[in-house]
Amino acid sequence: MTTSKPNLLGPFIRLHREKITPTQAGLTVHGRRRTPGLRREELAQLCAVSTTWITWIEQGRPVHVSAAMLNRMSEVLQLSAAERAYLFNLAGRQDPSAPAARTLPSHAVLQVVHALDTPAYVLDRYWNAVAWNKAASAHFAGWLDKDGDYRDRAPNLLEFMFKDPTAPSFVADWESRARRLVAEFRADVGKHLEDPALERMIGKLCASSRTFSDLWSSQDVVDREGGHRVFHHPVRGPCDFEQTTLIPATSVDLKLVILLPV
């Protein structure tokens, strides 16, 4: 695999190489130096790679960068947690030491959800609804019309959309929304496609819904967007909302979705 953002990865590594001194990196310095930071050959030695490899990656050439190598480099360069995450992101690699996906929203996020008098809910990485308010429960008949916040079997948005027989009549322009929803989901989970739980979930959806299977196979990818949403509520009739999605700063695997009446 080649680096996904080589033009950004190289300068980032070079900057941090030049910021750390040989003494900080555990090397013994002999004589005077023209630069206080690490030389390329010193970084290469500490990372157990060739100087040519370091040179090429700093020049932005498409070289192979493994997760193990990024782990070693982040240790040598003494990167902070945020800097380490950024390094892995620039290299297009998943950090094996990254914390597991947060499955429950924080107390602060729950307070926001329940303080709203308009439909609001929280989705996790798998698009399970892990929290919702009374307005969402009243609006999403067949999906969130239950009491409470979280269960062992959390209601999944994609399962509702593709397996519940009421969804096509509840969601206006269902075919268009279904196509976009799958494309948004692919974009959202792209960096987690090797997650076994995610693989199982997608496999079950493909097996139980031909429509989902066909849309998933189309490989469409689009950013998740808000905008105008229309629903046909079984009691209230047509309902128009403006949808927006927010990502909690401390829980990037969660999404807070809010529907504002138009």
TrEMBL record:
Residue ranges annotated for the HTH cro/C1-type domain, each copy included: 12-84
InterPro entries, per this entry?
A: Cro/C1-type_HTH, Lambda_DNA-bd_dom_sf, MLTR_LBD
> Do you know which SMART domains this protein is assigned to?
HTH_XRE (SM00530)
Q: Which one Pfam family would you cite for this protein? A: HTH_31
Molecular-function GO terms, alphabetical: DNA binding
Q: Report the protein name in the record.
A: XRE family transcriptional regulator
Species source reads: Acidithiobacillus sulfuriphilus
Q: What is the lineage of its organism?
A: Bacteria, Pseudomonadati, Pseudomonadota, Acidithiobacillia, Acidithiobacillales
